[in-house]
């Protein structure tokens, strides 16, 4: 590995390959895509197509798959950084010993890359901040096939989602831990569990014969509870072969409050580039978190409760008509505050659902 103290040294090639091979055990997308990630030279542009190979294509060239014309995706790779402290023994260790010291580093690095891949692709966010990033394109936000999750009916919800992808094959199912936990409790009319393989937080390799993975990254950010689709064909990812490696012997580069030299440690930092693309958004369908407008009678003494207005985040819904009654009072509308000092909504008004939900209070006039 030679002199690793200068920035720009490359991470050992055999360990670079190991990092990305291990990602499959950390990422739902890496697992379900069933592919060896494509290794690219350079870090300028990655090109993915339905054949899964890196290719040089004309600006408007297209690939044909199963009668459907799908354009190749050109992706600007995204830089990921990872660092960890190790003993300063690393500085003077033999080449073989350095590789040994780097083994747990590789494990941590692959976990970081796997989680980042999922969070960026599923939710279009910077994995460090959780904030949506304009740098991320060709992600699962481009998928327009959506089914609203109905508690207790995941089996039909996932079946309805699978029906939306047309001629594409269902090769995988990515479940959030939230949805998997709910499914583990669903029962049939005879009391038997619908999905016993999900009991006790299990992550089975298949559900109803479909390759599956349960991972908190699916809905750590965003509104997706699960995704079903053709992961094997319509999602691709890859990485730049060269990983920049740096050893920092002084200071406090990770802001831990502990000086490196004073603790006989050095800080190892890597910069890697990965790229990914949802090649055909129509090959997937999302099972979405339900959000609701809830209604409070605000002192009502009769009538019937108003049912929640339920839908997906971003969906436009109509504010419900009132069915509460209050003796001696007339309903005058809805408000976000019980005392009427919030935002007023008329019955039938349009409202766009958000992940924050909404609670409205009946307003009463004499």
How would you explain this protein's 3D organization?
This protein folds into three domains: 9-138 and 234-279, 2-Layer Sandwich (Major capsid protein gp5 fold); 143-231, hypothetical protein PF0899 fold (2-Layer Sandwich), CATH 3.30.2320; 292-365. 18% of the residues lie in helices and 31% in strands. With 366 residues, the chain is α+β, with helices and mostly antiparallel strands. The chain is built from six helices and 25 strands. The termini are far apart. The radius of gyration is 26 Å and the shape is elongated. The strands form seven sheets. Strands 1, 2, 7, 13, 14 and 15 form a six-stranded mixed beta sheet that branches. The chain has helices at 13-22, 28-32, 95-123, 154-163, 177-184, 231-234, and strands spanning 9-10, 38-40, 46-48, 62-65, 68-71, 73-75, 78-87, 146-148, 172-175, 206-207, 210-214, 224-229, 235-240, 244-248, 265-278, 284-288, 291-296, 302-303, 309-311, 316-318, 324-325, 330-335, 344-345, 350-352, 358-365. The model is unreliable at 1-7 and 52-69 (pLDDT under 50).
Number-wise, the strands total 25
Unreliable segments of 5+ consecutive residues: 1-7, 52-69
For the record, the CATH architecture of the largest domain stands as: 2-Layer Sandwich
Quickly count the domains.
Answer: 3
Percent of residues in beta strands:
25-35%
- Cα-atom radius of gyration: 26 Å
CATH class of the largest domain: Alpha Beta
Shape: elongated
Largest sheet: 6 strands, mixed
Give the helices and strands, then pairings.
Layout: E1 9-10, H1 13-22, H2 28-32, E2 38-40, E3 46-48, E4 62-65, E5 68-71, E6 73-75, E7 78-87, H3 95-123, E8 146-148, H4 154-163, E9 172-175, H5 177-184, E10 206-207, E11 210-214, E12 224-229, H6 231-234, E13 235-240, E14 244-248, E15 265-278, E16 284-288, E17 291-296, E18 302-303, E19 309-311, E20 316-318, E21 324-325, E22 330-335, E23 344-345, E24 350-352, E25 358-365
Parallel strand pairs: 2-13, 8-16, 9-11, 17-25
Antiparallel strand pairs: 1-14, 3-6, 4-5, 7-15, 9-12, 10-11, 12-16, 13-15, 14-15, 17-19, 18-21, 20-24, 22-23, 22-25
Helix pairs in contact: 1-3
